[in-house]
Amino acid sequence: MAGTIIRKLTAPDTHIHGLTFDGRCLYCSDITNDTIYQVDIETGTTIRSFAAPGTNPRDLAFDGRCLYNADVTSLKIYQIDPATGTVIRTVVTLPRAPGGLTFDGRCLWYDADATNKIYQIGIKAGTEIRSFNAPTNNPQGLTWDGRYLWSLDSGQAGIYQVDPATGTVIQVLTPGLVNIRGLAFDGRTLWTSELDDTTLVQISI
Known about the structure:
Blueprint: E1 5-10, E2 16-21, E3 25-30, E4 35-40, E5 46-51, E6 57-62, E7 67-71, E8 76-80, E9 87-93, E10 101-103, E11 107-112, E12 117-122, E13 128-133, E14 139-144, E15 149-153, E16 158-162, E17 169-173, E18 180-185, E19 190-194, E20 199-203
Antiparallel strand pairs: 1-20, 2-3, 3-4, 4-5, 6-7, 7-8, 8-9, 10-11, 11-12, 12-13, 14-15, 15-16, 16-17, 18-19, 19-20
């Protein structure tokens, strides 16, 4: 059944706000220690970690080669070498604080709870292409499943499947979680971070 909790893994830190999947492992960003962790998706074991490029790292994205991290304090999206943690470049300095972040194979998308909107931007120069209203008033996570966006609402703890062409909500998952941040798609299921019990949660779709 869609929206069912499949399992929970112990998170690598206490305030994981960002998640992405690289085809094998999860990457998680923690805002307390400003650290990015690589986590084995089967066991929950931390493989390695490195310092985040900013002081308030939120969501993560992966383009098949590099990581991207949205930082609230600097208002920047950084491109990162996942092998070393080295910042390759600053993609863009945004006019608003980013929360969720994802890559659709061509462009980056981010959400901002200050405007309650989802924005599509170019991956090379960070130029804003378009935007539409987020499904709810507290977007805090984005991911891409190959066809649709998924948007997480941390207040209502709902996960919304969204048509990227129109912004229309296709379905809503309510897995019964409370205080969630970040969103990732592993090719089959979704992952989010539940802050209250410090876990990474796998959810069916």
